[in-house]
Amino acid sequence: METLLPFEDSTQILNDAAALQARMECDGFFYFKGLLARAIVLDLRRQILGVCQKYGWLSPTADLMDAIIDPVAANAMEPFCGVGVTQAAYREVYKLEAFHRLAQHPAVLGLMARGCGETVLPHPRNIARLMFPTKANAPTPPHQDYIHIQGTKAVYTCWIPLGDTTETLGGLQVLGGTHSVGLLPVRKSAGAGGLQVVLDGLNQTWSHGDFTAGDVLVFHSHTVHRSVPNQFPDRLRLSVDYRYQPVSLPIEKGSLQPHCAVAEWADIYAGWTDTSLQYYWEQYALEFQEYDRSLFVTEPSGPMMGGSQMGGSQMGGSQMGGQMGGGQMDGAMGGGMSGPMGKN
Ligand SMILES: O=C(O)CCC(=O)C(=O)O
């Protein structure tokens, strides 16, 4: 049975590294109300919506910032790699300097450095989600990010809604405490990532709430999370997923590549004003960890979980893994955390 618990705002402990680490150790996530200035988030929203407008997927009569879709045009598009729009449009979004700059906003980097207790490495493989409420874009199923990202389990996702995002619009929910249960079995599923964890027997108290522009949700790579269905037939949900880890821990090489090979870095960086946002990871002597395919085994789909019932795909590993950020698939590590926000 599922129950819901409202997000608790962690702003009071924002500058307290020990308290942040203790909360992550206990809950596997934290939520900050208004961590970012609304204007910065809305500026990126405007730029991304500008791309959608160019492709004709938004209503020509509505205010751009309301993100009202043109249903005929939106339903005709074929979304790429779980991001909600075509590869060509995603490439344009991926080239936006502001999209990558937000990942390195001082408020986010400071928070992640305090949580990690050492220099933090933002993964350059940032992800934008332009979730048009179309048949092709199913909600993101409950999953753990680690299977897609690997390297170290001490990878943390910052999920940032680009605009006010009520649950009716399809926000994110997290299952607190699941960072300590180890990697759960998976089944194929519709939605970004193409896999859902099997939650049988687990306490399902989902933390949830409405987000406003500027809010940030941070969770451990083992923490189960999901999006909820967008109930608006005509409104687009926009968000970004950014990942961070302690620089001293191993990383899987794919985390340093553009998401889903949407373009080359040289092409993405063309015309940027801030070169410090480019190739910044090359300053570190990183330890690399091979992607582990050996433990990826999907369980048979249960009732209501199969791809066809949910309109899901029958994709193979590399296609599915890429959608959540992993260039590849699979992987497993034991549960539990150690050290600041979990150090391995
Ligand atoms: O925004 C979504 O629908 C999925 C986000 C997600 O799963 C993540 O950030 O890891």
Describe this structure in words.
- The protein is globular and about 50 Å long.
- It has a single domain (2-324), classed as Jelly Rolls.
- It has helices at residues 17-27, 38-54, 71-76, 87-94, 97-103, 106-116, 146-149, 265-269, 317-324; strands at residues 2-6, 29-32, 120-122, 127-131, 156-161, 172-175, 186-188, 195-197, 204-208, 216-220, 224-227, 237-246, 298-299.
- Strands 2, 3, 4, 5, 10 and 12 form a 6-stranded antiparallel β-sheet that branches.
- A hairpin with a 6-residue loop joins β7 and β8.
- The model is unreliable at 303-321 and 327-339 (pLDDT under 50).
- The protein is built from 9 helices and 13 strands.
- Helix content is 22%, strand content 17%.
- The protein is an alpha+beta fold and 344 residues long.
- α1 crosses α6.
- It binds 2-oxoglutaric acid.
| CATH class membership | Mainly Beta
H/E element order:
EHEHHHHHEEHEEEEEEEEHEH
% residues in beta strands: 15-25%
Note the gap between the termini: 32 Å
* Radius of gyration, whole Å: 19 Å
Number of domains: 1
The total count of strands amounts to 13
| CATH-level-2 architecture | Sandwich
Indicate the percent of residues in helices: 10-25%
3D shape: globular
Give every kind of bound small molecule, once each: 2-oxoglutaric acid
Determine the mean pLDDT.
89
Biggest sheet architecture: 6 strands, antiparallel
What is the CATH superfamily classification? q2cbj1_9rhob like domain
CATH fold call: Jelly Rolls
Structural class: alpha+beta
Which consecutive residue ranges, at least 5 long each, have pLDDT under 50?
Answer: 303-321, 327-339
Continuous helix count:
9
